[in-house]
């Protein structure tokens, strides 16, 4: 399972509030909601977040093994 690690806090620290992200149309609102809900987003979005926040991908997302997923592999 992939989890997001304080993505919007890191964006805010880099000078991008959620209002600014919406206003400048940097990330679509639906995608922002997917991040809040812990749903998957595409790599282009992750790339944009890394570029804007100055963070590495491992600072933004984490993989946590899911017991059910492990059984299906």
From TrEMBL:
InterPro entries: Cro/C1-type_HTH
HTH cro/C1-type domain location: 10-66
Pfam families registered for this protein in UniProt: HTH_26 (PF13443)
Source organism, top-level taxon: Bacteria
Name by which UniProt lists this protein: Helix-turn-helix transcriptional regulator
């Amino acid at each position: 399972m992939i989890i997001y690690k304080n993505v919007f806090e890191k964006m805010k620290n880099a000078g991008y509030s959620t209002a600014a992200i919406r206003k400048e149309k940097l990330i679509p609102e639906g995608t922002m909601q997917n991040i809040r809900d812990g749903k998957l987003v595409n790599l282009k979005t992750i790339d944009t977040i890394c570029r804007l926040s100055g963070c590495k991908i491992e600072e933004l997302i984490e993989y946590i093994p899911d017991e059910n997923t492990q059984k299906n592999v």
